[in-house]
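Subject: for your reference before the review

Hello V.,

The reviewers asked for a structural picture of the protein, and I figured it would be easier to keep everything in one thread rather than splitting it across files. Below is the amino acid sequence we used in the manuscript, unchanged from the supplementary table.
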Amino acid sequence: MRWLYHLQQRMALTHYESIVLLVIIGFALVGGSTRLISEQLMPIPEPGLPADHAAFAAAAAELNAVFASPATEATTEESEAAPAPADVAEVAPPRPNVSRKAPTARGPVNVNTATLAELDRLPGVGPALAQRIVDYREAHGAFARVASLERVRGIGPKTVAKFDGLAVVE
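And here is what came back from the structure prediction:
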């Protein structure tokens, strides 16, 4: 341990700094030796396809055969239960969950000059919140930055994060 004391003195390390340094060196040695041993025990495979490629290719061919084969004749019970193609066409696809976003053709919304309708187009802002923004702006003056909208009741950091690129202060 005398060598550790001399190392501390020479490098001007505290006792705890030298212990941390020894732990880091120990982890590096263990990691390096583990990698060396694992490379010797498990040879590096040749470049190209993995060893189980044949099994994967066989499974893929089986799935392709199942899905590409023509449908087998259905029993009368199955054909009665299945809807006719005309019935399927009448069913409307589910409506995607689309959040409201500001129109990109008009550019970002300036929160200091925006009307209620323009503020309403921001994501997470409805008519009531747009009115609160306008009221706050009239009572306290223009916003210095978009993050200042957090002072309006009902707007938090997550809502302001949704405004990124959609709202500006000019």
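For the response letter, the relevant points are probably these. The longest helix spans residues 15-41. The chain has a mean pLDDT of 76.

Happy to draft the paragraph if you're swamped.

O.
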